[in-house]
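**Tokenised fold:**
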Amino acid sequence: MNKIFLFSILFFLAIFSLKAQVNKDKLKPKKIGFLYNYANEKNFMFDDKDYSYNTNTYKIQAFYNLGNWKNFNFELILQPQYQKINHQLDNSFFVLPTEENFEEKIKEFTTPKTINLYGFELGFVFKKQLFTNVSVLATIGLGLANIDTRTERLAKGFTFLENGSLGFSYQFYKQTTLYLGSNIGHVSNLDTKKPNNGYTFLGFEVGLQYALN
């Protein structure tokens, strides 16, 4: 599906869901949280020999209840984030001789670099309680970001974020909950610029959430 179309659907669903709550609680989140994610391209699912890529992601989260259906609860997460990315081209032949200034590009891209990504993501949570204090949850996330350094796989500037997570939450003290999960992510720019090979990676994440009511 076209990513802009998908993002538009999710965005308007989020706005509609929040608008329905304005008169009740003036957009006050039900929970706030912080999440750390580490992900790597080198793993048992994805292992591209052309390049190395890993990222440390830090997200501030605001949770809103969207309702429930049968035994499932639905939440919306608004999550601004920062990603610190380590990247290096390992296969110099990835840059073709037909490209303009290909020798300079090979030197630039095979040099290890640190990249900064600043983004905003909407997360839609499907949650089911298993035990008194334990729940399983799946999250689908889509967002927009800016990346400050070009590589052989992705242009500098605007990009999309796509994430899927599966994990468990445990309420271990009054209003405080611990979350542990795994994540599959993708970063690319919908061919708004070249190149747009993008990155796909697998990681783990841990977070803390605090209920406000």
In short: The mean pLDDT is 89. Strands lie at 31-40, 51-69, 72-89, 113-129, 134-147, 157-173, 176-188, 199-211.
